[in-house]
Amino acid sequence: MDFNLVNLSRYTPQKIELNYKLIPFIPDYIPAVGDIDAFIKIPRPDGVEDKIGLTVLDEPCTNQSDPAVLHLQLRNHSRSAGAATRQAVVKRIEDAERNSKSIDKWIDDMNQLHRSKHLPGVQLNHAMPDIDGLMQQWPPQVEEKLNELQLDLSELDCDLPQLVDVVCNLLDIPTQENTRLEALHTLFTLYLEIRNVENRNFS
Protein backbone atom coordinates (compact mmCIF):
# COMPACT_ATOMS: atom_id res chain seq x y z
CA MET A 1 0.00 0.00 0.00
CA ASP A 2 1.47 3.29 -1.11
CA PHE A 3 1.23 6.16 1.31
CA ASN A 4 1.05 9.59 -0.31
CA LEU A 5 2.33 12.36 1.97
CA VAL A 6 0.74 15.00 -0.22
CA ASN A 7 -2.74 14.05 1.00
CA LEU A 8 -1.84 14.78 4.64
CA SER A 9 -2.39 18.50 4.21
CA ARG A 10 -5.85 17.85 2.75
CA TYR A 11 -7.05 15.97 5.83
CA THR A 12 -9.46 17.84 8.09
CA PRO A 13 -10.16 16.29 11.51
CA GLN A 14 -13.77 15.87 12.49
CA LYS A 15 -15.16 17.83 15.43
CA ILE A 16 -17.06 15.47 17.67
CA GLU A 17 -18.94 16.85 20.66
CA LEU A 18 -19.02 14.41 23.51
CA ASN A 19 -22.06 14.43 25.75
CA TYR A 20 -21.06 14.04 29.37
CA LYS A 21 -22.84 14.03 32.71
CA LEU A 22 -21.43 14.86 36.10
CA ILE A 23 -22.40 12.02 38.41
CA PRO A 24 -21.17 11.90 42.00
CA PHE A 25 -19.10 8.84 42.61
CA ILE A 26 -19.52 7.39 46.07
CA PRO A 27 -17.38 4.29 46.51
CA ASP A 28 -18.78 1.36 48.42
CA TYR A 29 -17.81 1.27 52.07
CA ILE A 30 -15.78 -1.84 52.67
CA PRO A 31 -14.90 -2.41 56.33
CA ALA A 32 -11.38 -3.65 56.71
CA VAL A 33 -8.82 -4.17 59.42
CA GLY A 34 -5.17 -3.31 59.39
CA ASP A 35 -2.36 -5.66 58.59
CA ILE A 36 -2.05 -8.55 61.01
CA ASP A 37 1.19 -8.65 62.94
CA ALA A 38 2.85 -11.96 62.18
CA PHE A 39 5.21 -11.51 65.16
CA ILE A 40 8.20 -12.23 62.94
CA LYS A 41 10.83 -10.18 64.69
CA ILE A 42 14.56 -10.02 64.30
CA PRO A 43 16.01 -11.57 67.47
CA ARG A 44 18.38 -9.60 69.60
CA PRO A 45 22.08 -10.43 69.40
CA ASP A 46 22.21 -11.32 73.09
CA GLY A 47 19.31 -13.76 72.76
CA VAL A 48 17.06 -12.00 75.28
CA GLU A 49 13.34 -12.13 74.44
CA ASP A 50 11.98 -8.56 74.54
CA LYS A 51 8.45 -9.69 73.51
CA ILE A 52 7.98 -6.87 71.01
CA GLY A 53 4.31 -6.69 70.01
CA LEU A 54 3.18 -8.79 72.98
CA THR A 55 4.07 -6.79 76.08
CA VAL A 56 5.84 -3.87 74.40
CA LEU A 57 4.12 -1.69 71.80
CA ASP A 58 5.54 -2.31 68.34
CA GLU A 59 5.28 0.74 66.10
CA PRO A 60 6.47 0.59 62.48
CA CYS A 61 7.66 4.16 62.64
CA THR A 62 10.96 5.88 63.27
CA ASN A 63 9.33 8.34 65.69
CA GLN A 64 8.46 6.17 68.66
CA SER A 65 5.85 7.37 71.15
CA ASP A 66 7.10 8.75 74.42
CA PRO A 67 5.91 6.39 77.20
CA ALA A 68 5.27 9.31 79.57
CA VAL A 69 3.25 11.24 76.98
CA LEU A 70 1.33 8.11 75.97
CA HIS A 71 0.52 7.42 79.64
CA LEU A 72 -0.80 10.96 80.12
CA GLN A 73 -2.89 10.70 76.94
CA LEU A 74 -4.45 7.43 78.07
CA ARG A 75 -5.11 8.83 81.55
CA ASN A 76 -6.65 11.93 79.97
CA HIS A 77 -9.14 9.82 78.00
CA SER A 78 -9.87 7.55 80.94
CA ARG A 79 -12.90 8.44 83.02
CA SER A 80 -12.34 5.88 85.79
CA ALA A 81 -11.91 7.11 89.34
CA GLY A 82 -8.71 5.15 89.92
CA ALA A 83 -6.92 6.38 86.81
CA ALA A 84 -5.19 9.23 88.65
CA THR A 85 -4.07 7.03 91.57
CA ARG A 86 -2.29 4.41 89.47
CA GLN A 87 1.44 4.29 89.09
CA ALA A 88 2.52 7.11 86.79
CA VAL A 89 5.28 7.05 84.19
CA VAL A 90 7.84 9.76 84.89
CA LYS A 91 9.71 11.43 82.05
CA ARG A 92 13.46 11.56 82.50
CA ILE A 93 15.84 13.33 80.16
CA GLU A 94 19.46 12.28 80.29
CA ASP A 95 22.00 15.11 80.20
CA ALA A 96 19.31 17.79 80.01
CA GLU A 97 21.81 20.64 79.68
CA ARG A 98 22.99 19.35 76.32
CA ASN A 99 19.74 17.82 75.16
CA SER A 100 17.64 20.91 74.49
CA LYS A 101 15.73 19.25 71.63
CA SER A 102 14.22 16.68 73.98
CA ILE A 103 13.14 19.44 76.36
CA ASP A 104 11.52 21.43 73.54
CA LYS A 105 9.78 18.28 72.29
CA TRP A 106 8.47 17.56 75.79
CA ILE A 107 7.12 21.11 76.09
CA ASP A 108 5.41 20.83 72.68
CA ASP A 109 3.91 17.46 73.64
CA MET A 110 2.55 18.89 76.90
CA ASN A 111 1.08 21.92 75.13
CA GLN A 112 -0.61 19.66 72.60
CA LEU A 113 -1.90 17.44 75.41
CA HIS A 114 -3.39 20.39 77.29
CA ARG A 115 -5.06 21.67 74.11
CA SER A 116 -6.68 18.28 73.51
CA LYS A 117 -7.99 17.88 77.05
CA HIS A 118 -11.69 17.50 77.55
CA LEU A 119 -13.54 20.24 79.35
CA PRO A 120 -14.19 19.37 82.99
CA GLY A 121 -17.60 17.83 83.30
CA VAL A 122 -19.75 17.53 86.40
CA GLN A 123 -22.79 15.32 86.62
CA LEU A 124 -25.46 17.28 88.48
CA ASN A 125 -27.80 15.18 90.58
CA HIS A 126 -30.19 18.09 91.13
CA ALA A 127 -31.62 20.44 88.54
CA MET A 128 -29.91 23.82 88.40
CA PRO A 129 -30.99 26.98 86.56
CA ASP A 130 -29.85 27.48 82.99
CA ILE A 131 -26.74 29.64 82.60
CA ASP A 132 -28.37 31.74 79.88
CA GLY A 133 -31.26 32.47 82.21
CA LEU A 134 -28.92 33.49 85.01
CA MET A 135 -27.09 35.87 82.67
CA GLN A 136 -30.22 37.91 81.98
CA GLN A 137 -30.07 41.54 83.06
CA TRP A 138 -31.46 42.37 86.49
CA PRO A 139 -34.38 44.77 86.88
CA PRO A 140 -33.29 48.42 87.29
CA GLN A 141 -34.70 48.52 90.83
CA VAL A 142 -32.41 45.69 91.95
CA GLU A 143 -29.31 47.29 90.43
CA GLU A 144 -30.11 50.65 92.02
CA LYS A 145 -30.63 49.02 95.40
CA LEU A 146 -27.34 47.13 95.22
CA ASN A 147 -25.50 50.29 94.21
CA GLU A 148 -26.98 52.13 97.18
CA LEU A 149 -26.12 49.42 99.70
CA GLN A 150 -22.54 48.88 98.46
CA LEU A 151 -22.76 45.32 99.74
CA ASP A 152 -19.45 43.89 100.97
CA LEU A 153 -19.78 40.15 101.47
CA SER A 154 -16.43 39.90 103.24
CA GLU A 155 -17.86 41.79 106.22
CA LEU A 156 -20.69 39.35 106.83
CA ASP A 157 -20.46 37.53 110.16
CA CYS A 158 -21.15 33.98 108.97
CA ASP A 159 -19.37 30.76 108.21
CA LEU A 160 -18.45 29.54 104.73
CA PRO A 161 -21.57 27.40 104.04
CA GLN A 162 -23.82 30.32 104.98
CA LEU A 163 -21.79 32.67 102.77
CA VAL A 164 -22.23 30.25 99.86
CA ASP A 165 -25.97 30.24 100.47
CA VAL A 166 -26.12 34.04 100.55
CA VAL A 167 -24.13 34.51 97.33
CA CYS A 168 -26.01 31.80 95.42
CA ASN A 169 -29.42 33.00 96.56
CA LEU A 170 -28.48 36.52 95.55
CA LEU A 171 -27.91 35.20 92.02
CA ASP A 172 -31.06 33.03 91.99
CA ILE A 173 -29.10 29.79 92.36
CA PRO A 174 -30.95 27.45 94.74
CA THR A 175 -28.90 25.91 97.54
CA GLN A 176 -29.49 23.19 100.05
CA GLU A 177 -27.23 21.41 102.47
CA ASN A 178 -26.63 18.53 100.06
CA THR A 179 -26.40 20.64 96.87
CA ARG A 180 -23.83 23.30 97.78
CA LEU A 181 -21.13 21.80 95.56
CA GLU A 182 -23.45 21.78 92.57
CA ALA A 183 -24.54 25.33 93.36
CA LEU A 184 -20.88 26.42 93.52
CA HIS A 185 -20.22 24.73 90.18
CA THR A 186 -23.13 26.67 88.67
CA LEU A 187 -21.85 29.88 90.28
CA PHE A 188 -18.33 29.51 88.87
CA THR A 189 -19.69 28.52 85.46
CA LEU A 190 -21.78 31.70 85.48
CA TYR A 191 -18.70 33.73 86.41
CA LEU A 192 -16.66 32.25 83.55
CA GLU A 193 -19.43 32.93 81.04
CA ILE A 194 -19.77 36.55 82.15
CA ARG A 195 -16.01 37.03 82.02
CA ASN A 196 -15.85 35.58 78.50
CA VAL A 197 -18.64 37.92 77.37
CA GLU A 198 -16.82 40.92 78.81
CA ASN A 199 -13.57 39.89 77.14
CA ARG A 200 -15.31 39.58 73.77
CA ASN A 201 -16.99 42.96 74.15
CA PHE A 202 -13.82 44.85 75.13
CA SER A 203 -11.37 43.05 72.86
From TrEMBL:
One of its GO terms (cellular component) is intraciliary transport particle B. It is found in: Cytoplasm, Cytoskeleton, Cilium basal body. Keywords: Cell projection, Cilium, Cytoplasm, Cytoskeleton, Flagellum. It comes from the Eukaryota. GO terms for biological process: cilium assembly; intraciliary transport. The keyword Cytoplasm applies. PANTHER family: INTRAFLAGELLAR TRANSPORT PROTEIN 46 HOMOLOG (PTHR13376). Belongs to the IFT46 family. This is Intraflagellar transport protein 46 homolog. It comes from Trachymyrmex cornetzi. The lineage of its organism: Eukaryota, Metazoa, Ecdysozoa, Arthropoda, Hexapoda.
